[in-house]
Amino acid sequence: MxxxxxxxxxxxxxxxxxxxxxxxxxxxVYSVSLLQEESLNMEYLIxxxxxxxxxFANAILLASKSTTYGTNSLLTIxxxxxxxxxxxxxxxxxxxxxxxxxxxxxxxxxxxxISIGLLPLCTIIINHFLFGFIVSTKxxxxxxxxxxxxxxxxxxxxxxxxxxxxxxxxxxxxTAVLVACFGAANNIFSFQLNQLGFSAASVFxxxxxxxxxxxxxxxxxxxxxxxxxxxxxxKASLLxxxxxxxxxxxxxxxxxxxxxxSVAYLISTIPVFVFILETIRTNFIFNYNIVGVLVISFxxxxxxxxxx
Length: 308
Hints:
This protein is mainly α.
């Protein structure tokens, strides 16, 4: 009976991870539309997104009180949990700030290929240096293949950014790489909090406080809320719920059941979905990108077969 229950739990976690992948891919494409084509202010977009996300996350936390997942409010956090929780808040702030900054410069496929494609390798490196985890040579090999896929997928589109200053392109690339590094840290410290007794709902509810403390006052003082209109508020709120809240909700439950390394491999397929959505939206196919996303997909498949 326990075996069947465990298989069902893993199946649900995989479905949640797939939902995370599709919604995240949609978020990248929609964010580029808002930031580059509609020139929506980045700080305002982050502020609205995470006001919506924090409200949603705490509603989930309250609703989970009668479930087996348990709860952890800010008032009941133990001392041993404070440091990983603070680190998770910091990595969350940096990850999302750099995500939206990079998407003001790069196209969605290039950004997702770099930030998501590098995630397994970053997860392996961080796990190795912080926790001493050892993985097989095959895992390293296919992680390097993912890096190659990232390069192939990105080069063609980056060369197409003719009207963008070289320094801006460099900053876009650098922040996309940093998103991969901090994204891996997000998964690892979320998993660590789960091991310390935090429920998925409580990790979700408590990870955005630093982002709100920094971004909301800054956006308000800069007058971004006053300059906005109802249409922008609706679009930013939609992105916050469908592009941030729901995907992260699905991600937390996936990480708890599958572990950060397996989740990192699964979500490395996001560039494939971004490429498909962007191709549909622009009616244009980038041949080199097709090669890149196929390399990424194949490598992820092999990693799932031969996890180290």
